[in-house]
Amino acid sequence: MAAPQDDMFSLCVDPLKVRQNVEVRFIDNVKGKGIFAKRDIRKGESIFTERPLISAQFLWNALYKYKACEYCMRSLETAEENAQRLSGKPGLSLPRPELCRVRPDLQQACPQCQVMYCSAECRQAALDQYHRALCLGGSHEDPDHPVNKLQEAWRCINYGQLALLRGLFTTALYDEHLVRWFTPEGFCSLFSLVGTNGQGIGTSSLSQWVHACDALELPDQQREQLDAFIDQLYKDIEKETGDFLNCEGSGLFLLQSSCNHSCVPNGEASFPDNYFLLHLTALSDVRAGEEICISYLDCCQRDRSRHSRHKILRENYLFVCSCSKCTSQADEPDVTSDEEEDGEAEGETEDEMTDV
């Protein structure tokens, strides 16, 4: 059952401002709800900032001993400390360490199970909402505890992914002959993609980094080496994980979940503070009464052909896009952008899918 609109706005940082900016409307039985601007919004303007109804870190985070707040997923260690721990190199330094603001003096642990929080406020919020039920207390080593059973099942399923991640981290982050190719900005971009700053890594997010690497001016030999390295990363990810390398965590955002997709989005959801607070920002000027749409595809996927975009959306989100870009390209031939195997059923038509 959908949450009442007042409950959705109550999760926003400034509910009054949000009510002045947007409203949730029911569109029709096919598209369902959508978010619409109540006033003119300029490009770059913050539309709303929202807390999740519920969020959680992925288990592989804990297995790799990432230090993040159990409630809000804020990092409990700096990027440099994280890199030193993962690489086993205590002397490793990263550019611009001043950008990582961590307050160890505010961190608190649950006295029963010792999970960590970034503040007393997060610890209390977790206790009020769910931690009383999930706290393991002294049962960390009890194989019959329901939470431990669930985690063990997840470990078995994801052992291959975790092993591959270790190799990818080591190769991509700490190989000296790779690091020297990148500017400080480029290195920080790569580092953020592997989960320490909440972004995760996968073929989608990796493609964004690849796009940025194309702008680097490198000698021919180094360009060939970099291209070969990137190709191998793609092959390893697809072979070992089926394109399933998770980011730091996941959350359900009631207001943002009403945003429909467009291949030419006028809004973008992001996590600039590297914890669970979601920011929706205008990518272009939005007129009062206009629907605010985000893209379920990354920037590189949006540059693919209409046929390729539709294939991704059908496989992952079970609908066919009818945005202005897709409509304008309706007469283009149905060809993939990267010659991947189609794999679609012969008789499948767009009319069989939900139109959003």
TrEMBL record:
Compositionally skewed regions (Acidic residues) per UniProt: 331-356
Gene Ontology annotations for the cellular component aspect, listed alphabetically: cytoplasm
Q: What EC number(s) would the UniProt record show?
A: 2.1.1.359, 2.1.1.372
Keyword line? Cytoplasm, Metal-binding, Methyltransferase, S-adenosyl-L-methionine, Transferase, Zinc, Zinc-finger
What is this protein's record name? Answer: Protein-lysine N-trimethyltransferase SMYD5
List the Gene Ontology MF annotations in alphabetical order: histone H3K36 trimethyltransferase activity; histone H4K20 trimethyltransferase activity; zinc ion binding
State any GO BP term from the record.
methylation
Give the PANTHER family listed for this entry: HISTONE-LYSINE N-TRIMETHYLTRANSFERASE SMYD5 (PTHR46402:SF2), SET AND MYND DOMAIN-CONTAINING PROTEIN 5 (PTHR46402)
What subcellular locations does the record give? Cytoplasm
Q: Which reaction(s) does the protein catalyse, per the Swiss-Prot or TrEMBL entry?
A: L-lysyl(20)-[histone H4] + 3 S-adenosyl-L-methionine = N(6),N(6),N(6)-trimethyl-L-lysyl(20)-[histone H4] + 3 S-adenosyl-L-homocysteine + 3 H(+); L-lysyl(36)-[histone H3] + 3 S-adenosyl-L-methionine = N(6),N(6),N(6)-trimethyl-L-lysyl(36)-[histone H3] + 3 S-adenosyl-L-homocysteine + 3 H(+); L-lysyl-[protein] + 3 S-adenosyl-L-methionine = N(6),N(6),N(6)-trimethyl-L-lysyl-[protein] + 3 S-adenosyl-L-homocysteine + 3 H(+)
User: Which residue intervals define the domain SET in the entry?
Assistant: 20-297
Q: Which domain of life is it from?
A: Eukaryota
Q: Where is the segment annotated Disordered?
A: 328-356
**What is the originating organism of this protein?**
Denticeps clupeoides (denticle herring)
* Keyword Disulfide bond set for record: no
Q: Which gene encodes it?
A: SMYD5
